[in-house]
């Protein structure tokens, strides 16, 4: 391995390309930066800076893990989402860029609501709730999850991103027992068909917690649970924004309609795939 930042980056990117990774350049850059403690600017300003022996050793370990298909976010323990850096652990889903669609849709829905109250069901790292609290400084929210370990991570993320005074984290199944209603309920629930999980890409199957993936036999268990609970969790003018798996828009619309909700729209992600469903209570 060449021992300058630039050389190490190029060599690593070439090996990742050869291994068939989706984003070899980005993966290599992030790992070189983490191993050397430099940022984007450092890479640009001092590309010829030599790596120390310890940095080369660290980078070798990172490379071995990445070539064993461990995602970069798992190696580093962090993931960028909505321009913020979140801690991720084996207890949390690695936040996906597609889920930013939910944040954008949700911000539009509470645009006119003063000091909105937010519930994030299945909060994981807390990324959805914390991104919203970051954008809306007058908002408060609860992140709910059934995983205690995920709640600990979400709570640490709220603290490191400076919104701990406006966020609370509660162990609750689908928001049960919270005893209050919200202006906005947001959720990215587990929605993968159970039988498909063993066939998923190993970077997902071996590193995301099964609790964050498993949507039951048809992938729709969480939507049935949410359909049942949302009518008791939404304020009369409140909105729910719920992530969809590919091809689930029709089935989830039907589940929510059956539960007595009104489906306002389905929102596509940047790739044009229906990614979120927006629902509300019927007008009285
Ligand atoms: C797909 S992950 C979403 C995590 C995070 N909101 C995100 O978008 O990255 C689903 C989350 O739902 C949680 N979960 C699974 N079953 C649950 C239940 N019965 N009640 C509440 N949360 C649950 C999982 O622990 C996991 O954190």
List the helices and strands and how they pair.
Blueprint: H1 5-18, H2 24-36, H3 40-45, H4 53-67, H5 72-76, E1 78-81, E2 84-87, H6 100-109, E3 117-121, H7 127-135, E4 140-145, H8 148-160, E5 167-171, E6 182-187, H9 202-205, H10 210-213, H11 221-233, E7 234-243, H12 249-258, E8 262-268, E9 274-280
Parallel strand pairs: 3-4, 3-6, 4-5, 6-7
Antiparallel strand pairs: 1-2, 7-9, 8-9
Helix pairs in contact: 1-2, 2-4, 6-7, 11-12
The chain binds S-adenosylmethionine.
Outline of this structure?
With 284 residues, the protein is α/β, with parallel strands linked by helices.
Model description:
The structure is a single chain. The chain has helices at 5-18, 24-36, 40-45, 53-67, 72-76, 100-109, 127-135, 148-160, 202-205, 210-213, 221-233, 249-258; strands at residues 78-81, 84-87, 117-121, 140-145, 167-171, 182-187, 234-243, 262-268, 274-280. It is of the alpha/beta class. The chain has 2 domains: 5-68; 90-280, 3-Layer(aba) Sandwich (Rossmann fold), CATH 3.40.50. The strands form 2 sheets. The chain has a 7-stranded mixed beta sheet with strand order 5-4-3-6-7-9-8, with helices on both faces. It has a two-stranded antiparallel sheet with strand order 1-2. The longest helix has 15 residues, at 53-67. The chain is elongated. The termini are far apart. Residues 93, 95, 99, 121-125, 127-128, 144-147, 150, 173-174, 188-190, 211-212 line the site of S-adenosylmethionine (SAM).
């Amino acid at each position: 391995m060449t021992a300058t930042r630039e050389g190490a980056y190029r060599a690593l990117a070439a090996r990742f390309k050869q291994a068939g990774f989706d984003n070899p350049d980005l993966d290599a850059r992030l790992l070189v930066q983490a191993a050397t403690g430099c940022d984007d600017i450092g890479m640009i300003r001092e590309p010829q800076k030599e790596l120390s022996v310890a940095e080369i050793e660290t980078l070798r370990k990172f490379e071995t893990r990445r070539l064993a298909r461990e995602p970069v976010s798992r190696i580093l323990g962090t993931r960028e989402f909505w321009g913020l850096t979140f801690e991720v652990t084996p207890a949390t889903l690695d936040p996906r860029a597609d889920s930013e669609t939910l944040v954008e849709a949700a911000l539009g829905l509470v645009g006119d609501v003063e000091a909105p109250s937010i519930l994030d069901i299945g909060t994981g790292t807390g990324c959805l709730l914390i991104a919203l609290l970051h954008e809306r400084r007058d908002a408060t929210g609860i992140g709910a999850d059934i995983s205690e370990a995920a709640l600990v991570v979400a709570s640490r993320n709220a603290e490191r991103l400076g919104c701990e005074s406006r966020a609370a984290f509660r162990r609750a199944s689908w928001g049960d027992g919270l005893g209050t209603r919200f202006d906005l309920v947001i959720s990215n629930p587990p929605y993968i068909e159970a039988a498909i999980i063993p066939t998923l890409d190993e970077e997902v199957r071996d590193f995301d917690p099964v609790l964050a993936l498993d949507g039951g036999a048809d992938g729709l268990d969480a939507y049935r649970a949410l359909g049942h609970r949302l009518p008791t969790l939404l304020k009369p003018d409140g909105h729910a924004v719920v992530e969809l798996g590919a091809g689930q828009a029709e089935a989830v619309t039907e589940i929510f309609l059956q539960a007595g909700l009104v489906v306002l729209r389905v929102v596509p992600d940047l790739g044009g795939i229906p990614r979120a469903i927006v629902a509300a209570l019927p007008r009285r």
